[in-house]
């Protein structure tokens, strides 16, 4: 996979991009990712996340709005491994992860607010394929996300194709 540098994309397509202005930390060995957005809105419950990552990812990116909760983790090493093995490009979480040492050993990337050792609930609450807003960016299903060491960008179309 070719990593599209966010700084280069801003230089070329700034008017077509929005920047996620949020203090997300990258976990995992992959330098970044890009892909079509799939969204989940949930709060301290990861059952819908697991079910989604069990599906073929086909290079898509899962964006999760967990309400900025860091009281428990929405993704751990097992769920991250599901995403990687099923072809998801990466994950962005407005919330926490756990098992960060194991995730940091994976050739995968997750951007999250923080870590927490506590498990989330498994009540199957939440919604999929809904518009999300955090970090002054809108994450719309079907739009495109670019993530690397410089940050996260969102566009209505895959701008790297010109």
TrEMBL record:
This is 4-hydroxy-4-methyl-2-oxoglutarate aldolase. InterPro entries: RraA, RraA/RraA-like, RraA/RraA-like_sf. Pfam families: RraA-like. GO terms for biological process: regulation of RNA metabolic process. Catalyzes the aldol cleavage of 4-hydroxy-4-methyl-2-oxoglutarate (HMG) into 2 molecules of pyruvate. Also contains a secondary oxaloacetate (OAA) decarboxylase activity due to the common pyruvate enolate transition state formed following C-C bond cleavage in the retro-aldol and decarboxylation reactions. It catalyses: 4-hydroxy-4-methyl-2-oxoglutarate = 2 pyruvate; oxaloacetate + H(+) = pyruvate + CO2. Keywords: Lyase, Magnesium, Metal-binding. GO terms for molecular function: 4-hydroxy-4-methyl-2-oxoglutarate aldolase activity; metal ion binding; oxaloacetate decarboxylase activity; ribonuclease inhibitor activity. Its EC number is 4.1.1.112, 4.1.3.17. Its cofactor is Mg(2+); a divalent metal cation. Gene3D superfamilies: Ribonuclease E inhibitor RraA/RraA-like. Homotrimer. Belongs to the class II aldolase/RraA-like family. PANTHER family: 4-HYDROXY-4-METHYL-2-OXOGLUTARATE ALDOLASE 3-RELATED. Mg(2+) binds at residue 99. Substrate binds at residues 76-79, 98.
